Predict the 3D structure of the following.
Amino acid sequence: MEHTYLRSKVIDSVESLWSRILQISDESGMLLFTLGVDNALLADYFSGRPLPSSINKPGLDHAFSKYRELEQVSNPFGDSKSDDNYRLFVSPAVWDAYFSYRSFHGRLGFLVYDSFRKGTYINWMGDGEIILPLINRMLGEKANIPSSGGQRIGYDIADSDRASQADQGNKVDFVALYRAGAFEDTSPGHYVQKALERKFLVAAAELMLDPNKLSPD
């Protein structure tokens, strides 16, 4: 009976956290898409310089509207304390994947707010304080990505679709992937988002197969 109850709580907790991930993904979709446009255009937008007539500025205003005030970005996805109810019933790997997912998207919103506050675009791909260390820790594989200043920043990222590359320790180069058409239907932000989602699902599957993973190694 106790085993059945525990397994039920594990399943409920994993499903609840996955629902939260889907909610965050839905709420952040427009932000990720908009941050995937040309960096020079975003630099002009946040500095208040005139944009080309072909650019839909009201569309940019709408995409960034909820990130103009600190109150809106301090807790963008609801009360995080409610998530703690599930923490006891998932493995450290599942919780870490979820928390990292939430942190990545929350940090994106804060950097947009900070861009408005400072009047200059802060490219998330150059965020060495939180986002790059988070990606480095969670996704594992070395990659290079151009920062807003044109310099290349090395950090780790893994894509399960390129598992053979990861096994061989090869670098995944965002510029090379872009030129090869890897981002035709996505953006670097969506690329990271999907990799983090896969990280969560893999950890969740491992937990379902072995409930002993509730305890740290």
